[in-house]
Design goal:
Layout (H helix, E strand, L loop, with lengths): L4 E8 L7 H23 L4 H14 L19 E7 L4 E8 L5 H11 L4 E3 H11 L12 H13 L24 E3 L2 E3 L7 E6 L5 E7 L20 E3 L3 E7 L1 H7 L1 H11 L4 H11 L6 E7 L4 E5 L4 E7 L4 E4 L2
Parallel strand pairs: 3-4
Antiparallel strand pairs: 1-7, 1-13, 2-3, 2-8, 5-6, 7-8, 9-10, 10-11, 11-12, 13-14
């Protein structure tokens, strides 16, 4: 019997001027999710059940960018995506383009458990959800007043919304501002809303699992798919480690960031902390991102090259930490 460990995140990239009240609200949510996961682990639930349970809670709360509270497309609608992966046999499920499924991570779990496939998207995923009898809601349920306001800002700036990097100088004149130093897929952008959510767990049996869920980018093109549902990029789990990523999706996709953590552990012999530090430093090129990870030995680690990352972790020996910066 080994030792369990859990980590959660609410997105990499935090506005340096984020009000204290919002910081504390985020910490309370992360703490609540950790408590849910800890209770489940103490009840001997397997890792795959725990990550689904925790991410469902994050999807239900509108604070972060997943489920209710998801970022809006250029058309003012929500298109959500999620993935889940069970380490022991590397089973996985993923979904994209969801508009009515209340908890995308649970539909991803059903793709893994109930179909011969690994990934369903858009109309096919919605049809599968109806056949499985999962809870469906109107798209309006996911839309919050805050995100409607953020979309308005993004459209005025004619950009994807990068809320924690928007230039504070030279932005007068409705977006005819300085050329953005931030690029995505080689093209400049000025604003971006991160706050993808994720959870990684290793249980007492040493089984690792990971899950990630998001609404994507604010003002994104309809049909855009990010890293979160892509196995090996935003989510990965094997018999050695589980990883969930967050941040600049296109950079995470190019670097297959989640799988890279496992790869350098397998092929370079790095431990978990060394592996996380290595991929953040050497695999993101100029991209900005973060990740959480657990190993089969009960270790937990996080890494990011952004201003901050909403995160929390706990281990069986009583260690627990929640942080932003």
């Amino acid at each position: 019997m080994g030792a369990w460990a859990i980590a959660v995140h609410g997105g990499a990239g935090v506005d340096p001027n984020l009000p204290k009240e919002r910081q504390e609200e985020a910490k309370r949510l992360l703490t609540r999710c950790l408590d849910i996961g800890i209770s489940a682990l103490r009840s001997n639930l397997p890792a795959i059940d725990v990550v689904e349970l925790v991410v469902r809670e994050l999807e239900t709360d509108p604070l972060f960018n997943s489920g209710r509270g998801s970022a809006l497309t250029e058309n003012g609608t929500v298109e959500m995506e999620a993935s889940i992966m069970d380490g022991p046999k590397r089973r996985c499920g993923a979904v994209s383009g969801l508009t009515t499924v209340k908890n995308p991570v649970s539909l991803a779990r059903l793709v893994m458990d109930k179909t011969p496939h690994s990934y369903l998207a858009f109309a096919g995923a919605e049809e599968f959800a109806r056949k499985q009898g999962v809870e469906l809601v109107d798209n309006q349920y996911f839309i919050t007043e805050d995100n409607v306001g953020m979309l308005k800002l993004a459209k005025e700036a004619n950009s994807i919304l990068f809320d924690y990097r928007i230039p504070t100088l030279g932005t007068c004149g409705g977006g005819a501002a300085l050329e953005s130093p931030i690029q995505m897929n080689g093209l400049p952008i000025s604003v971006y809303a991160p706050e993808t959510v994720g959870c990684v767990v290793v249980d007492k049996e040493g089984r690792c699992a990971a899950a990630t869920s998001t609404g994507g980018l604010m003002n994104k093109m309809t049909g855009r798919i990010g890293d979160s549902p892509l196995i090996g990029s935003g989510t990965y789990a094997c018999d050695l480690v589980a990883v969930s990523c967050t941040g600049e999706g296109e950079a995470i996709i190019r670097s297959t960031l989640a799988r890279e953590v496992a790869a350098v552990m397998e092929y370079k012999g790095l431990n978990l902390h060394e592996a996380v530090d290595y991929v953040i430093k050497y695999r993101l090129d100029e991209g900005k991102a973060g990740l959480i990870a657990v190993s089969k030995n009960g270790e937990v680690a996080c890494g990011f090259n952004t201003t901050g990352m909403f995160r929390g972790c706990a281990t069986e020996d009583g260690f627990m930490e929640v942080g932003v910066w």
